[in-house]
Design goal:
Layout (H helix, E strand, L loop, with lengths): L1 H25 L4 H22 L1 H23 L5 H13 L12 H13 L1 H13 L2 H6 L8 E3 L10 E10 L2 E11 L3 H9 L5 E5 L3 H15 L2 H7 L2
Helix pairs in contact: 1-2, 1-9, 2-3, 2-4, 3-4, 4-5, 5-9
Length: about 240
């Protein structure tokens, strides 16, 4: 069984490294990657089920169920993309249980929680950037936006890759109104034209970060240390 677990970990590590490369380069990961993960994970899980019986079936079922629910919730809230959700669900099949027995969470959920912790570096970094760039008055007026985005001139919207507008811009009676959009809005040529026509000098944008990087970091820390939240709480 140790050889099966080692194979699962090595295979997942290789897949995640490739997925990171694809996510960074194209902000998407081909579906064949997840098909391959299921193609390898399903036979391994069936083998474990035949060897270990009902206890493993319960472990596998809870791993898939809870990972699917949480991943779908994160996806619907636009906290990450479809590829990230598919990755975690496939991970719940390949590695359904935590290798460190003292942590009861399914391995995929531990990976997600650790990834969420690592992703906190993003709002902190954005706030520090805005703290250095904006005046104190402007920072106070946009304190919430300062954690999730930064300001950019409209003429640069076509130059900078992998960003989204933090507001929807609509013309009403000759004026340009803006409304905050959770998760950001696509940048279209028509929006850029509106901004230029109304003389808008800067807009708030949010970066489309490759969450797969955080998932991969969460995977390796879960493997080596387990659930970082539990680890921290156990030392309080």
């Amino acid at each position: 069984m140790i050889e099966i677990n080692l194979l699962s970990f090595c295979f997942c590590a290789a897949i995640l490294i490739y997925a990171c490369y694809s996510d960074i380069k194209r902000r998407r990961v081909s579906n064949w990657v997840w098909i391959l993960m299921i193609g390898v994970g399903a036979p391994l899980s069936i083998y474990r089920l035949l060897v270990r019986g009902l206890p493993f079936l319960l472990t596998l079922s809870s791993s898939i169920l809870f990972t699917f629910i949480l991943s779908y919730l994160f996806f619907r809230l636009r906290l990450f993309g479809g590829a990230d959700a598919k990755c975690l669900i496939c991970l719940s099949i390949l590695i359904p249980e935590q290798p460190l027995a003292q942590y009861p969470f399914p391995f995929a959920l531990t990976t997600l929680l650790n990834a969420a912790l690592f992703s906190l570096v993003t709002p902190v970094s954005l706030f520090v950037y805005n703290l250095l760039k904006l005046s104190p008055e402007e920072l106070r007026a946009n304190i919430r936006l300062a954690f999730i985005g930064y300001k950019l001139a409209p003429e640069r919207l076509g130059e900078v890759k992998h960003i989204r507008l933090l507001h929807l811009y609509e013309e009403d009676g000759g004026e340009l109104n803006r409304d905050f959009v959770f998760g950001g809005a696509e940048i279209g040529e028509d929006v850029v034209k509106k901004l230029r026509a109304h003389g808008v000098r800067e807009v708030w944008v949010t970066p489309e970060l490759p969450f797969m990087l955080f998932i991969t970091a969460g995977f390796f820390t879960s493997l080596l240390y387990g659930n970082l939240i539990f680890l921290f709480m156990s030392h309080l």
